[in-house]
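Reopening this ticket.

The earlier resolution said the output was attached, but the attachment link was broken on my side. Pasting everything inline this time so it's all in one place.
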Amino acid sequence: MNAIAEDISNKTEIPVRCENSHDYDDIDIRNISGKWEAVELYMHLSNEGVKIYKSCPRITIWETEDMPVSTFGPNTENPPHHVQHMTARFHQEFRNLRLLWDEAGQTIEYAMYFRNDSAGYWQVFHGQNGTLTIRPNYQQFDGTVQVLKAVNDHLVLNFCQEASNGRPAQLYTVLFSREPGAMLRWEIESVHALLQNKKLSVASRRMVCGNGAEKPILSVLFSLTSCLFVFVVRSS
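Inline output:
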């Protein structure tokens, strides 16, 4: 079962406003480029509770000079002068990103852009490509992606789309890790606290790639057992 392909639209009619917090305006995109492993998805507009998925979603982020190519509208192979001027100005003020979501070979590719003075707040070009997007329950995302946390070993991205033109609101956040496998419980709880401070609920979440609730408990028990073993050995 794919963790991202299920319905992620607004089920609670909560008003959604996609505002830039400006926390990561100065982030160096090179520091968050590359591959990340998904750990948890937080569904802020859903009442689904906690679900555990066996799939292991991964993303790859990279910067590109290429602007997305639309299949609609007039031919742009030889654009008029004013279009060339607008394109040049765009490249001066904005930069382009790609984000590829890969889940067991099933993909979604997001094309995005951001202002030079707001590198942690990305606007998504309408329309994603990839094999997951052709599923009947997939909803195209036409909102923003914002960096809520970026450290060496984990990354938190918020996906936000306001309701408009008949499209439902979408609001969800994904926690990623540089390394595969379960994250430490205190690291995950620090992300929960961050989201709650931003009034983003973590009550409904999807745990993926073996990051079930039982993992941290086993880890703590193993640590306590190890400490006890060391104490017994030293006392004997």
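Reporter confirms the inline version is readable. The domain at 29-211 is CATH 2.40.128.20 (Lipocalin). Helices lie at 29-32, 81-93, 185-197, 214-235.
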